[in-house]
C-alpha cells in the first residue's frame, strides 16, 4: 500500500480495513489506530504532530491533564510512553523496526489515588497508538486467578489472560498472589503462568500490577522474575488538601453542582479532619463525601418545598457537610 497524496504522510488504512484487521468481534472498538503504517522511502519525512492528530493521541493526553488533578510524574511517564510509541511507528515506516517495548507496569499507591482510573486511560492510549488491539481492561484479583484445588489454578489464570488478551490485564493487590508463609500455595502457579504470557505475548498483552507500595516491594523481592518483567513503576502519591479540594471542584462541575462560598470553606475543613481519620481513601473519600452531601441537599430542598431556582438545585451549602460525623 502507498500513501495517498504526493508527499508521503501518515495516511492510514480506511477504518473498515482496520476494524477487520483488529478482529471481527472487536468491530465496536474506536479508531483505526491499529492500521499498520505504510512504509516510506529513506528520503521521506514524517510529521509526528499530524500523526498525533490522526490517532487522537492528544485527545487522551489532554483529557488526562484536564480530568485528573495532580499526578504530575504519572502524567509525564504516560507522555513519554506515548512519544516512544509514536516514534516507534515512524521508525517502522523506514524499516527501522525494533522489538516492541515491554510495557508491563506496576502502579503503587494508597486507595483512591487514581490507579484504576489511570489504567483505563493507559489502555485507551496504547490502543490508539496501535500497541494494543483493544482498549479493554480486564480487572482481576487473586480469587480470579488462583484456584482452591490441584489443577484449578492453571485454567483459571489462563481464562483471565485469554479475556484480557489484546488489552490490559489489571491485577489489583497483586501481592496476594504470593504467600511467603505457604510454599504449596497455588498462587505461585498463577505467577508462573503470568510470567510466561508476559514474556511470550508482550506485544499483545499489557499486565498492570496495582497495590500498596510497601507490599509490592516485598512481593518483588520474593519474585524477581516478575520484577524484571515490569518496565514501568508508577507511584501514585497521596493527594494534598489543595489537590483534594480541586478534585472536589472537578467532580461537582462534572455533575453540574457547585459549592457556595461558605460551603467551599466548610468542605476544606471537612477534608482536613477526614484526612486524619481511619480508612481515608483520597479521591474516593472526596467522591463519597460529595455523594452524601447531595443526599442532604436533596432532603433540605424537599423540606424547603417551593420556589427553587436552577442555582438552588446546583448549590451545596455548609449544612450539607456539617451533618457529617467527621464534625462530631
Ligand atoms: N487525580 C484525580 N483527579 C480527579 N479524580 C480522581 C483523581 N484520582 C482519582 N480520582 C477519582 O477518585 C475515584 C477513585 O479513583 P480510583 O478508583 O482510580 O483509585 P484507585 O487508586 O484505583 O483506588 P483503589 O486502590 O482503592 O482501587 C475515582 O472516582 C476517580 O475518578
Ligand atoms: Mg482501583
As for the CATH topology of the largest domain, it is Rossmann fold
Give the low-pLDDT segments: 1-33
Radius of gyration: 24 Å
In spatial order, strands of the major sheet run 2-3-4-1-5
* Assigned CATH superfamily of the largest domain: P-loop containing nucleotide triphosphate hydrolases
Proportion of residues in helical segments: 40-55%
Strand residue percentage: 5-15%
Structural class: alpha/beta
Bound molecules: adenosine-5'-triphosphate, magnesium ion
How do the helices and strands line up, and which of them pair or pack?
Elements: H1 15-21, H2 48-55, H3 57-67, H4 72-93, E1 105-109, H5 115-128, E2 137-140, H6 142-145, H7 153-164, E3 168-172, H8 187-200, E4 206-211, H9 213-222, H10 224-229, E5 232-236, H11 241-254, E6 258-259, H12 261-275, H13 282-304, H14 310-314, E7 315-316, H15 319-322
Parallel strand pairs: 1-4, 1-5, 2-3, 3-4, 6-7
Helix pairs in contact: 3-4, 3-5, 7-8, 11-12, 11-13
Bound molecules: adenosine-5'-triphosphate (ATP) and magnesium ion.
